[in-house]
Amino acid sequence: MLSPPANAAKRRRNWRGPLRAVDRFGAREWRWLTVLVWLILAGSYLSHYSAAIHWFSLGDTDDNMRYLQVRDWLAGQSWWDLSQHRMNPPEGANIHWSRLVDLPIAALMLVFGLFMDSGAADRLAVGVAPLLPLLPLMLALAFLARRLAAGQPGDKGGDGAGHGWLAAILLPIGAQMGFGMFMPLRIDHHGWQLALTAMTLAGLVDRKWVRGGIVAGVSSALSVAIGMEMMVYLAGAGGLIALRWIFKEGAARRLRPYALSLAGTTALAYALFASNANRLPACDALSPVWTSILVLAAGVLLLISLLPRRGWALRLLAAAAGGALIAGFAWWAFPQCLTGAYQISPELEKSWLAYIREAKPLTAQAPSAWVPMVALPAAGLLCGLIGCWAARRDSERLWAWGTVTLMTAFALALMFWQIRAGAAAQLLAIPPVAWALWELARRLFTGRWPGRIGAALGLVLLGSAASAYALYPIANNAIDELMDDDPDTPTLPAPRRAGNGAPFAAAITPARDADTPEPIRNAAASSAKPKNNSSRCRTLPALQPLDQLSPAVIFTLVDLGPRLIAVTHHSVIAGPYHRNGAAILDIHHAFDGSPERFRAIAAAHHAEYLLICPGFPEGTIYPARSPHGFYARMLDGETFAFLKPVTLDYAGTLPYQLYRIVPEGKAGAGR
Fold it and tell me: What does pTM read for this prediction?
């Protein structure tokens, strides 16, 4: 008969066999397990957003415009024509996007259209499409987490041991600013760009240098083909590959395939996806400007990698000369782009862009926004520095850690310029945090008691950083209650906030667009005002009654324009797209100016109706900026003879006010 210690040892041996089998299975099949988790997440979010999908609740202006772009193409608009002809007619609005992101949405619409009517197919397509780039994102994050982990003893070439990759594919759920780009109905291009950026980073640290160079080059070029938002990260990736070549003998094995794939994919993307407008030297899209610069940069990288330069000093000199050549060419050929990609007028920047929340720095945000926004990137940077120290004796692993840490630090620093960098910062910080979570969990179960206590505290801190969006409002309310001198005074709960800083809404009510100007509130008057129903102005039930009117140009708010034309047959003056600055300023001048000026601008655009939405975020700017302007006077209830109220057949009260604009010279034209 075995003694109690012998029985305990036998039980441990009995458990170790199955655990080792599970460990080996996870290490071998991590890709397919990631696909399985993605399928589960996709199904759960489609179920959660089913009501929003049914009501076609595209809450973001860009999502509505993307849908229109796809529908117009399928309806016969030219592949090379990305103008929106129902915005600022008859000229149309020049949209600077690419057709690349249109392809999966259009494919889903066509496939689903084989089994259901076109309306249902469109709704299901815009629900499913944003989840597609989530899979390559999760695979890239899992790959990075495995690359950062220490290998098994005696393992010279494989990825690291452990299962931090499992945390890496789940942590995006807490990164609401980044993860929100992959939610159903979020069909704009940001999800694809974030996934491609993560894939670029994975290519930088891949142990298989040729494969890594190709992945990094192709991913970078495709991201630029979609849009310029990630250009700074991609430039940083190219710089890191060049830096590795300078200081590492043999690193040309990654640099050369990177250069060839970057040049080839960029040229092909320009040939296949650049619109007619982007064939001109535009600074804000893949045009002759960026195509020539990127192809030249790739050629320079390829050339210097072929030169017989031995020693890091000579390679550094060659890289510096190549960089100077690229910069000199850009300055000589396209000096207009040195002042910025948008190329907008000072008036447009002051009147419109300055109010866009995502274009503001982190320091301009309230703590309720910036604390949860920065928690995960800050934790990722700290874990990255610890990981660099842990890998200091393994040069290959240290390169991977240094690359990921530098990119995380760069993304975090960019948030102090514009918070739109927050989505990438949160997602790029995940691999270091995932590695730390696994290491702490391992020590919690296998270490000695002092180490277990430290591991438990570390897990709590990292878990709090990963769940900051959910925990911060709770902690903030608890602190307010502790600091409250009068316990009988109720405290209002802080709104739970989504990734773009807007209150986290239910599935049927999408969050406010980050491109939408922040509302300007009058604290003294807010309690006396009726309930704000402005969120209903974007809803399908509220806008569909407009189709009772014959197709016409409706003069409305800039940020309401894309939604209105997406769900009705009408046209509008403008949307929040910088290439159409004159039309945007016309709306601002009309609403800030006198009634006579509004009437003249409306007539110039052949507008037949005026639609205003009291309480709409953009609409709070005009009264605050011009308290005696036309829009402010409309909100105050002042009437004008040239505006005739229009009543639509609707069971209930519509959230907006609709007026017919009487042309000058017609009856009732005077005030």
Answer: 0.88
